[in-house]
Structure prediction request, 283 residues.
Amino acid sequence: MIQVKDLRYRYKKGGPEVLQGIHFSIAKGEIFGFLGPSGAGKSTAQKILYKILEGYSGNIMINGKDLREWGKEYHEMIGVGFELPNHYLKLTGKENLEFFGSFYKSGSRYNIKELFEKVGLEHAMNEPVENYSKGMKMRLNFIRAIQHDPEILFFDEPTSGLDPINARTIKELIKELRCKGKTIFITTHHMETADQLCDQVAFIANGRLMATDPPSKFKEAHGMPMVRARTQNGDTREFPLEHIGQNREFLHFIQGNPITSLKTQEATLEEVFISITGETLRP
Ligand SMILES: Nc1ncnc2c1ncn2[C@@H]1O[C@H](COP(=O)(O)OP(=O)(O)O)[C@@H](O)[C@H]1O
Ligand SMILES: [Mg+2]
Prediction:
């Protein structure tokens, strides 16, 4: 359980406040996401939570204890997937994992080969990391974060630099972690990642949280309650969703034409983001 109240942060005294009073809470077994463009303050907030940045103001409680009071044992409890993977390039993937695993009292709680298999890297586990592509390094980064089976996980842009298939693998693994009851905090500027993964999404822009809700709630609240029907020859017609079953015009249209698609006009999370924050998600 993570509770953050009025979190504020400046990198330099007298510098701009890059987090301007942020509130949120993350329940156990929940995937919580920060969605926002580059420079919004997502990584800064995460770095504070994993105790790399100090000197914040506000209050952060982790499992009922003030973050400032947590000692070394905190790092046993959390797993961090950094935004920019920092591996030892001359060492193999396996050696990297063993080296970083040696920092934990419990070491790695998984079988190392199984971890590599989870992310489709088993063929490369004995290769030096300097031969890895960016996507392979990201996948190694992911298993590094989960290897000691921590209770709380932070993933900073977990799907960035991955092709759609590998991005899906990572998303599925994050969902598996949720099933195991982990508390998960991700940041992303990809609206699909936020939409597909998160139980709660917080929109962040310019160091402020503008709104927090489940993705489905955002989309319903901002969508048009219309159904769009498209025919084989490309004609489209829109009908109000309300009482659609009794709408004679609609029924006549779908009975009398070869329909190729029928969709509700739900807003995308990106459209909602733009409408609420006035910012785009493009980096
Ligand atoms: N080490 C740093 N020193 C000074 N300013 C920084 C530093 N890191 C990030 N910033 C600034 O803080 C703001 C938020 O950055 P960041 O948290 O990295 O955003 P995001 O992860 O959403 O892209 C940006 O304006 C960025 O330029
Ligand atoms: Mg970032």
